[in-house]
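Protocol step 4 of 6: structure prediction from sequence.
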Amino acid sequence: QVQLIESGGGLVQAGDSLRLTCTASVRTFNSVKMGWFRRAPGKGREFVASIRRNAGSTHYADSVKGRFTISRDNAKNTLYLQMNSLKFEDTAVYFCAAGTETVFDHWGLGTQVTVSS
C-alpha cells in the first residue's frame, strides 16, 4: 500500500515562493516515477511536473516551466516542488502522484495553494 502525504501549501502573494513536500510510504521509492498535479477551482486536474525514478529526467507543463522545479530525495522517500514567482492562476489544490512510466496510480489527498493578486 502506497501512501502519499503532501505538505507546504498556504496563502501567499503573487511573486512569492513556496516549496511543497510529498512524503511517500513505499519501500521502493527509488523505483517509481513521481509527479505533481493540480486542480484549480472549477477546473479539471492538470499535470504540473514529473520526475523519473533516477531523478535524471524531468518534465514540466508549459505554464510552470522556468518557475517550478521538481526534485526528489530517494534516501528520504520525499518529493519536492519548488514554486517561484507564483501567479494568481497557480491557485489550486496540489496533488502528489506515484506510478510507473506510463501511469500514475497512487495519489495523495492534496495541499491547498492560494496566491493572492
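Step 5 (inspection) to follow. Residues 15 and 36 are 20 Å apart (CA to CA).
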